[in-house]
Amino acid sequence: MHILITGGAGYIGSHVVKLLLENSDHKITIIDNLSTGFKSIIDTLQEVRPFKFIKANLSNWDEIRGIFKANPNFKYVILRYFNVAGASPDLKIGQKTKDATHLIKVAAECAAGKRDKIYIFGTDYPTPDGTAIRDYIHVSDLSDAHIKALEYLENNKSDVFNVGYGRGASVKEVIDTMKKVSGVDFKVIPAPRRPGDPAMLIAK
Fold first, then answer.
1. pLDDT at residue 67 tops 80
2. Arithmetic mean of pLDDT over the chain
3. CB of 7 within 8 A of CB of 59?
4. Cβ neighbours for 43, distance < 8 A, ≥ 6 positions apart
5. Using an 8 Å Cβ cutoff, are 198 and 127 in contact?
6. d(Cα 41, Cα 13) in Å, to the nearest integer?
7. Are 55 and 24 contacting, i.e. CB atoms less than 8 angstroms apart?
8. How far apart are CA 157 and CA 119, in angstroms?
9. Which pLDDT score, from 0 to 100, does residue 61 have?
């Protein structure tokens, strides 16, 4: 199978590519304009085994039409997910985005002394502890879901799926857990809700 992966130089895409390169003989092509991805990640992945990398912008329809024209039997799977966290077990790739705002990464940086405080945006939501609840998923599990989606695609038509654990954790629960496992009691500051943030997001 020839697999086209968009955003393969970024956080989530790179983990999917790594899993495919290590566990399959599929032909891999990555499209990424490197606006949020990293060329260094492409170089790291090329050490696993060679693949084709196309630096292109998906908003450039001329380029995209050319790719699809060369692959007339193209099928797709779209996965919808919410809050992704973690790194590959060998720690070769992970979240590299500077000043990332993801709760788990920020909490980890506080525990590691890279930040001096963390904000909780909203403590008056209609949830058990008043903080927002999200369905956090480890990037390795999400990568595995992409592989399962490819297996599904072999004998089925293009489709769209939600991906998650089907259960959530509150902002306060995540912070308290980070403090417990790290042994660091970092500063937590309550702040107003951010516009548009729902009380709960859980995959179903």
1. no
2. 93
3. no
4. none
5. no
6. 10
7. no
8. 44
9. 79
**Residue position matching structure tokens 């990332």:** 100
Widest distance between CA atoms in the chain: 56
Q: What is the pLDDT of residues 150-192, one digit of tens each?
A: 999 989 999 999 999 999 999 999 999 999 999 999 999 999 9
Secondary structure letter of residue 86 according to DSSP: -
**Contacts of 202 by beta carbon, 8 Å cutoff, 6+ apart:** 133, 134, 135, 164, 166, 167, 168
pLDDT for 71 beyond 80: no
Do residues 8 and 16 touch, judged by C-beta distance below 8 A? yes
Closest CA to 31 of 79, 81, 66: 66
* C-beta pairs of 107-116 under 8 Å, 24+ apart in sequence: 107/174, 107/175, 107/178, 107/186, 108/178, 108/182, 110/178, 110/184, 110/186, 110/187, 111/178, 111/179, 111/182, 111/184, 111/186, 112/182, 113/184, 115/186, 116/186, 116/187
Mean pLDDT of 113-138: 96
H or E element at residue 132: none
Q: Where are the alpha helices (DSSP H) in 24-95?
A: 39-46, 61-69
Contact 80, 204 (CB under 8 A): no
pTM, two decimal places: 0.80
Q: Which structure tokens are listed for 144? A: 């595995």
Question: Which letter does DSSP use for residue 154 in this model?
Answer: T
State how far the alpha carbon of 137 is from the alpha carbons of 37, 142, 203, in Å: 20, 7, 10
